[in-house]
Amino acid sequence: MSDQTFRPRRSVLYMPSSNERALEKAKTLPVDALILDLEDAVAPDAKPQARVNAAAAVTSGEYGAKELTIRVNGADTEWHHDDLKAAAEAGPDAIVVPKVNSADAVLSLVDAFDAAGVPDTTKLWAMIESPYAILHAEEIAAASDRLNVLVLGTNDLVKELYVEHVPGRTNLVTGLQLAVLAARATGKVVLDGVYNDVKDVDGYLAEVEQGRAFGFDGKTIIHPGQIEGANAGFAPSAEAVENARGLIQAWEDGKGAGVVTYNGRMVENLHVESAERTLSIAEAISKLED
Length: 290
Ligand SMILES: CC(C)(COP(=O)(O)OP(=O)(O)OC[C@H]1O[C@@H](n2cnc3c(N)ncnc32)[C@H](O)[C@@H]1OP(=O)(O)O)[C@@H](O)C(=O)NCCC(=O)NCCSC(=O)C[C@H](O)C(=O)O
Ligand SMILES: [Mg+2]
Prior knowledge:
Elements: E1 11-16, H1 20-26, E2 33-37, H2 47-59, E3 67-71, H3 80-90, E4 94-97, H4 103-116, E5 123-128, H5 131-135, H6 137-142, E6 147-152, H7 154-161, H8 173-186, E7 189-192, H9 201-214, E8 218-221, H10 227-233, H11 238-253, E9 260-262, E10 265-267, H12 269-289
Parallel strand pairs: 1-2, 1-8, 2-3, 3-4, 4-5, 5-6, 6-7, 7-8
Antiparallel strand pairs: 9-10
Helix pairs in contact: 2-3, 11-12
Magnesium ion binds next to helix 7.
């Protein structure tokens, strides 16, 4: 079973590492993971202090069970090397790298991680945010075991496609699904992009539901008000858990029959595997929330 079974990543919150108030607030927020941003959310002259803040947050031990990641500036920027050095010393759970466009880029990053002394325990999360990256998502995902998560960057994708953000994301559906297919084909986790309008609750919840239906493991978010929707939307519902338990019981009661029924529906081994996956996810979430 792939990684997401064991580590919930329903809600993954970006925060500008230059914003000390947000860094403080995040200690108590019920998110599964944090992305301490050094890239787009941080102005150029604030980047040195943001680096220091992000590293201090990672080493503070004050963020509980949250997965802590640092988003560095892209490999082609003047800040990348210093960001990597700071992240290497802090040793976050993962380093998020924006605008990863090819398998070669992944391999170069893995070399750069080693050269900078990034600990082996620090994974690579690659951002898929260009048309080229979408079309090469499977190669990117498969390029290294160090890469365990693909993160959609839908703001950059919209920009690169010369389109607009529209309700229902009809102009992104193909790209989103290609990214999910790439992740599933390679056993990696895949996170949906952000919803920019932090005041539009209905639009946000509709997008969470869509992301879940497409097969994403969780959603990247930008505001504390978006946490609850992602945590609920990307967790199995109480009904789904009850259904999974009942289905597995019906299968066991069938004592080796190749096919049984549960609530009037056909059940085969593949349905049992899906039910077991649902229960594993629910159990991992419940452990995290204890
Ligand atoms: C979007 C925001 C600028 C809104 O900020 P603000 O107006 O301050 O919001 P509120 O007043 O409603 O905030 C209420 C309290 O919550 C704290 N807060 C707000 N946002 C965060 C956060 N992200 N993490 C932690 N805490 C947060 C405020 O400090 C207030 O706290 P308090 O006063 O103590 O009650 C802001 O939300 C924000 O900056 N969000 C993150 C933006 C960001 O990181 N953007 C970069 C990534 S998005 C992206 O581009 C992905 C990708 O690359 C792509 O291409 O798509
Ligand atoms: Mg981006």
